[in-house]
Amino acid sequence: LRFAPPQPVDPWSQPRRFTQFGPQCVQPESMLNPPGQQESEDCLTLNVWAPESALNAAVMVWIHGGSFTSGSGALSWYDGAALASRGVVVVTLNYRLGALGFLHLGGIPGETANGLDHAANLGLQDQAAALKWVHDNIAAVGGDPRRVTIFGESAGAMSVGAHLVSPASAGLFSRAILQSGTPAHSHGLEAAAAVRVAVLESMVGSDDTDLRVLQAIEVRRFIEADAAANAVARTAALPLPFQPVRDGLHLPVDPRESIRDGACAQIPLLVGANRDEMRLFSLGAAMAGTVPSEETLLRRAKRMLESANSSSQPAELLARYREVSGHDGGIDLWSALATDAVFRLHALDLAESQAAAGGQVWHYSFEYASEAFGGLLGAAHALEIPFAFDNLHQRGISLLLGEVTEEMSRLATGMADAWVSFAQGQSPRLPGGDPWPAFSQTTPTTAVLGVESSLTTTHLDEVRDLWTSRG
Question: In this structure, what are the phi and psi dihedrals at residue 173, rounded to the nearest 5 degrees?
Answer without folding.
Answer: -155, 160
